[in-house]
Design brief:
The chain is α+β, with helices and mostly antiparallel strands and 527 residues long. The chain contains 17 helices and eight strands. Strand 1 and strand 2 form a beta hairpin. Helix 15 packs across helix 17. The chain is elongated, with a radius of gyration of 34 Å.
């Protein structure tokens, strides 16, 4: 039997090794999008180059106005030229920024789509033991919330990190070319930025992991409550369930508040440092002008103010990107953990040996010394043997928890036996592909499953070439023909809500569905 899943408890902080592993998996899964990412990087680079060149024209424009304002000899043609150049440069920046963002947004949506496809495919490959040990709501949270969080975080982080890296180098170079004296003043802000960003990230990182895990817990609680709403009402347990949910919801609120609070500190702290730096540049620049140091002019200070904003902007972007990446890492860890869960053995190359072959099919089923346990603590079935001859109708009777349904699940290979052998027509079920076993047996489960769709679609589910005449004959056999005849549109009646038909009618529909498969043997699990 496959091992049961072992999830981390909600709120456990990711270790350094887990973060590194998640980042590696994330980059590995994004490799196929490398060319559009590079194209986006080119647009970002063009945007950065134009943004760094623009202050030179701002300097010239400011000097032209300040130097000739008193004498009223401002060259308006030159001013117009500078304004036109600046306008074209900033419009080009906006276009490049839009194109890079559009490309990355397209990538992330395709990435999210591919992840959902992988998860859906993975669900069909997981052993039943996984679902026994995992809340359905938690799985749904991974498919929806975690994938969305991961893709949205990548959307924000990729653009921010690429832009920040280019801008940091370009603006720093531009500042020192313009004035190394003012550049040194601006550099004082770097240690402050790094110190505060490090402190905030240390506080914020655990909260993002807790938040993503708790979202899965809350969604699981919601799914559980709504699926069992009838029982809750029957036992007047509304207050108890509401109190239990409120406790989980309050915990989620706490984690979300802390994550947003610490993440929200990035902007005000970086803005404060920026304002202090602006003040230092103005004071220092004024003193340099007064003392005629370094040929600094009013235009130089105006240009430098833009450079300082461009220089400090990457720190804010990096802080926000790291903030966003914490969500991505927490969500990515849960998604990749799910995709790495142990799968059932690959049987795609195993040929059918019994069913759909021109060989006699007797239908003999044997259990020989079969033993099974869900875990090592308690054995459910011990040395069970039975010989079911062709044509026999066998009932497995026993108290609740004795292993009746488990026996059926072992026969269908939903679980693997720990010892002994189960055979069909003398061939061990281990030598038969699961698909063949599922074709051999028509099965009606304890829990009836009717999906949204027409009566016909529900009856011929995954069966091909079934004529309406055959469907109607089967409905007559299960005494459901009159019910279908009374429905508007008959077989085409669309079931939007399974509660629109009774439990007994749902069960009869599932029996008819199993009969239409024309399987040589039938299993009724308390049906």
């Amino acid at each position: 039997m496959s091992p049961r899943p072992n999830f981390k408890k909600p709120g456990k902080k990711l270790t350094h090794e887990e973060r590194r592993e998640t980042i590696n998996k994330l980059f590995s899964s994004l490799k196929k999008y490398i060319f559009p990412i590079l194209l986006s990087a080119i647009f970002i680079l063009i945007n950065v180059v134009l943004a760094v060149l623009a202050p030179n024209y701002v300097e010239d424009l400011t000097n032209e106005i300040s130097n000739h304002a008193a004498t009223k000899t401002i060259d308006m043609n030159l001013v117009g030229k500078y304004v036109l150049i600046l306008g074209l440069m900033y419009v080009s920046c906006a276009v490049c920024s839009y194109l890079s963002s559009f490309i990355v947004a397209t990538i992330t949506q395709r990435y999210a789509n591919s992840l959902r496809k992988e998860i859906t495919k993975k669900i069909n490959l997981l052993p039943l033991a996984y679902f026994d040990g995992t809340q359905i709501g938690d799985i749904l949270s991974r498919v929806t919330n975690d994938v969305d969080s991961l893709s949205q975080s990548i959307d924000t982080a990729v653009v921010s990190l690429l832009s920040a890296a280019f801008m940091l180098v370009a603006s720093l170079t531009g500042m020192f070319i313009k004035s190394w004296q003012l550049g040194l003043i601006a550099m004082v802000s770097i240690p402050l930025m790094l110190l505060f960003i490090g402190m905030i990230m240390k506080l914020a990182m655990p909260q993002f992991s807790k938040r993503q895990s708790q979202i899965g817990v809350v969604q699981g609680a919601i799914e559980e409550k709504f699926s069992g709403q009838l029982v809750v009402k029957l036992f007047n347990a509304d207050k108890k369930e509401n109190a239990a949910f409120e406790k989980k919801n309050r915990l989620l609120e706490e984690y979300m508040f802390k994550a947003q609070f610490f993440g929200g500190l990035m902007m005000p702290v970086s803005s404060l440092i920026s304002y202090l730096c602006y003040g230092a540049i103005i004071v220092g620049g004024g003193l340099f002008i007064a003392n005629e140091v370094g040929g600094i002019t009013l235009g130089t200070i105006a240009a430098f103010m833009i450079y300082v904003r461009l220089f400090q902007q990457p720190f804010t972007q990096i802080a926000q990107a790291l903030n966003t990446l914490q969500t991505a890492l927490a969500a990515g860890k849960r998604v990749f953990d799910f995709l790495n869960e142990g799968e059932m053995s690959d049987e795609n190359d195993m040929p059918y040996k019994l069913f759909k072959r021109n060989v006699p099919f007797s239908g003999e089923v044997k259990f020989k010394d079969v033993s099974f346990s869900y875990d090592s603590s308690r054995e459910i079935i011990h040395d069970f043997s039975a010989d079911i001859k062709p044509g026999m109708k066998v009932a497995i009777v026993g108290p609740t928890g004795a292993g009746k349904t488990t026996m059926v699940n072992l026969l269908m290979r939903f679980y693997e036996i720990n010892g002994g052998e189960i055979s069909i027509n003398g061939i061990s079920t281990k030598e038969l592909p699961r698909k063949e076993i599922h074709d051999i047996f028509g099965m009606v489960l304890q829990d009836t499953w009717i999906f949204e769709g027409s009566i016909r679609d529900n009856l011929i589910y995954n069966s091909k070439g079934v004529a309406d005449k055959e469907i109607l004959e089967t409905l007559k056999e299960v005494k459901l023909d009159h019910f279908v005849d009374t429905l508007p549109n008959g077989l085409d009646y669309y079931i939007k809500d399974t509660n629109s038909i009774s439990g007994g009618q749902r069960q009869l529909l599932t029996i008819a569905r199993a009969m239409l498969r024309k399987s040589p043997m039938m299993i009724l699990d308390e049906a």
